[in-house]
Design a protein that fits this description.
Layout (H helix, E strand, L loop, with lengths): L6 E4 L4 H11 L5 E4 L17 E4 L7 H10 L3 E4 L9 H6 L3 E3 L6 H17 L1 H8 L18 E5 L3 H13 L3 E5 L5 H5 L3 E2 L2 H7 L2 E4 L13 H6 L4 E5 L8 H9 L3 E6 L21 H6 L5 E3 L8 H20 L16
Parallel strand pairs: 1-2, 1-3, 3-4, 4-5, 6-7, 6-9, 7-8, 9-10, 10-11, 11-12
Bound molecules: nicotinamide-adenine-dinucleotide (NAD).
């Protein structure tokens, strides 16, 4: 009897996921089961019969959910994203569930979107666009700020941050400061200066966040940082929402201390982002308040969303699944952090 194909349950599916995974699967032949709902304690049971669960950024794979996935027979969690702060890796390891992610799919997609957000915010392009559609061609209120000559602080100069730092330094002529435990010599060679995080946060006119979310970086921008930052500071976050204490940010915006904010991510985005809630009342006072400021520009976790990135994500995800099923080593396997010796 021919063996039935390995079943992959894809949680939190959107049309673009379905399209790209189906296309990449044409050469693989897995049995893809698409579920619109996110992974939660209530939906984990749907994985019964699937050996693989494919998750995205807001599918919460904490210990209780992983226990349910293990009970349903899941042996591999394949994240179709780079960040993995939503998965309890220690619990997965204890339950003998392997976890893979897509460490690199298109840093260009995210870095270009970051620059796009920054330019839109600083030149008020989003506001001009809605005015012109209403035949309002007045320029009052649209005065912007140059990037050239300003001090830009890049927190995290990995794949995405390095491209952003390069664009800001070599493209726009900013004075670029960087903070990262790992120094990128190529950036130093073009004039990027590595400084400690506190100095960067104090000295930058523009702060753009590209480090992962870890206990060390959670609320990296908080009330104290905002109180000591340069007046008129611009903040861009295309990394993870919890890098910023959003309530402290609102306070600083109300005090007119912050000049502009562009956010593609938000700490409480799970259950809100990726869905059309335009007919609903959204019960999130912080998000709703943020959206009222004229100098806040928000998008709904869109920075990764290009044809090229989606194709690369689907291809790498299914490659990892193929390796897992064939018993080959997993190139993109995540391991649980080692406990620190006290
Ligand atoms: P990467 O691993 O290549 O780079 C992360 C960098 O952060 C590394 O150089 C690392 O040394 C550095 N870092 C770690 N801890 C730090 C700290 N405490 N302070 C300063 N730097 C620190 O990752 P990447 O591919 O460049 O992605 C960066 C982040 O972007 C990811 O963690 C992910 O959360 C986010 N992301 C968002 C989207 C989106 O659609 N908005 C898409 C992809 C990735």
């Amino acid at each position: 009897m021919p063996q039935s194909p390995t079943q992959i349950i894809v949680f939190g599916t959107r049309a673009y996921d379905r399209h790209c995974l189906t296309r990449a699967n044409a050469t693989q032949g897995f049995d893809l089961r698409f579920i619109d709902a996110p992974l939660t304690k209530d939906t984990a049971g749907l994985a019964a019969g699937a050996q693989i669960a494919c998750l995205f950024v807001n599918d919460m794979a904490d210990r209780p959910v992983l226990e349910l996935l293990a009970k349903a027979g899941v042996r591999l969690v394949a994240l179709r994203c780079a960040g993995y702060n939503n998965v309890d890796l220690a619990a997965a390891q204890a339950l003998d569930i392997a976890v893979v992610h897509v460490p690199s799919y298109s840093p260009h997609a995210v870095s270009e979107f970051t620059i796009g957000l920054l330019l839109s915010l600083e030149r008020k392009i989003h506001r001009a666009w809605s005015r012109v559609r209403d035949n309002n061609f007045a320029l009052d209120g649209l005065v912007g700020r140059n990037l050239h000559g300003r001090v830009a602080g890049v927190v995290g100069t990995g794949q995405i941050g390095a491209l952003v730092a390069r664009a800001l330094r070599a493209g726009f002529g900013c004075d670029v400061l960087a903070s990262d435990p790992v120094v990128d010599q190529g950036l130093v060679d073009i004039g990027v200066r590595y400084v400690d995080r506190a100095e960067l946060l104090r000295s930058a006119d523009i702060i753009t966040l590209h480090c992962p979310l870890t206990p060390d970086t959670r609320h990296l921008i908080d009330a104290a940082v905002l109180a000591n930052a340069r007046p008129g500071l611009t903040i861009v976050n295309t990394s993870r929402g919890a890098l910023i204490d959003a309530s402290a940010l609102i306070d600083a915006l109300k005090l007119r201390r912050v000049g502009g904010v562009a956010l593609d991510v938000y700490e409480q985005e799970a259950g809100i982002f990726f869905d059309d809630l335009s007919d609903e009342i959204v019960d999130d006072e912080v998000l709703q308040r943020l959206l009222t400021f004229p100098n806040v520009l928000m998008t709904g976790h869109q920075a990764f969303l290009t044809d090229e990135a989606l194709a690369a994500i689907a291809q790498t995800t299914l490659q990892s699944v193929g390796d897992f099923v064939a018993g080959r080593p997993l190139a993109h396997r995540l391991s649980a952090p080692q406990p620190r010796p006290d």
